[in-house]
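Repro case for the chain-ordering regression, as requested:
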Amino acid sequence: MNNEKLILVDIGNTNFHIWENGYIYDLKQADKLEGRVFYISVNEKKEKEFLSLNPDAVNLKEYVKFDTDYKKLGIDRIMACKTVEIGTVIDAGSAVTVDFMKKGKHLGGIIFPGIFAYKKAFATISDKLNKDFRKPDDFPISTEEALWSGSIGSIICMIEKYGIKPVYLTGGDGKYLNQFIDGIYIEDLVFKGMKQTLIENGKWRMYNEK
Amino acid sequence: MNNEKLILVDIGNTNFHIWENGYIYDLKQADKLEGRVFYISVNEKKEKEFLSLNPDAVNLKEYVKFDTDYKKLGIDRIMACKTVEIGTVIDAGSAVTVDFMKKGKHLGGIIFPGIFAYKKAFATISDKLNKDFRKPDDFPISTEEALWSGSIGSIICMIEKYGIKPVYLTGGDGKYLNQFIDGIYIEDLVFKGMKQTLIENGKWRMYNEK
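-- result from build under test --
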């Protein structure tokens, strides 16, 4: 048995998300990590920074098997969906991605602005739209309710339109969205897909997990 | 009969929209207008600039009657809805506003980012999201289709959710959205509301219209 520590890294557009011994944390900047590092990345610039500090890190993109007709599906979305047999997968980060799985096949997906991106877009249009969101009871009858409906409400509308249950949520704003969406929040959903990829390639048992 | 020319001005967050003798045009900057000017405004800074050049212009906000429970509804949205007895009113500008009317009463409304604001939000998140939108046939299976669904598709979803027909479209991107939404494009819908307000206050017949 190899006792070298296993580290999983998900390089996003804003943060480096790190999994280490069952603990998850974020780094704003690339850092040198001590252990056997497997990673995925959706941001080439951040990936280069990371590889300059961790030249032996292995990109899991080369190893993953995933059934989809979607052209150039982001590797983070692949990993988030990989362990889901059926359901809707929401990853709420810089963007909110919503992907649909049935019988282990990826049917397609949607990209919304992230919650922060919605707020910034509204505030940029007008100071009057620089408001907190509030869920309406019925028709939206205030700016706060109108903005909730035009962002979170519209994400929910599309999820309900395709109607594939259960709904899984992950990502930085996953817990926040779970207030409004009947679903299961799984903090490490992307890392579960990465682990599954390691298992499928016979690389998992080589390392210890707490 | 007063032969002074009537001019209507809708001061938005991006442009000055002008109605003059049945012609509509946009100004990027405030200008001195020759005639009897009535206006509405959602942008205080632009309104001040405009009033410094047109000190006799009359704000129609003081004259309009409109039935709604919505707090601080934008005067442009009031004017766009004012002549609609029943239906959904889409004003696609810097923001896309969607308002619901029944029996001449405003039931509520939604604020989405404008089409340009969506594109800018996506491009800001990642260069990979700096793509044209494309309407999917079924599930979105490319970035272009995923972005369409996460913006225009989600606007349509909310319109269909409330389901109040017919649908009227106006604003700079109204014609563009009409490609995807079964509705009636009315270029001068806001100005129709302003004219109706003038009529209700006995100010319309005083001026000539071509």
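Ordering looks correct now. The first strand of chain A starts at residue 6 and ends at 11.
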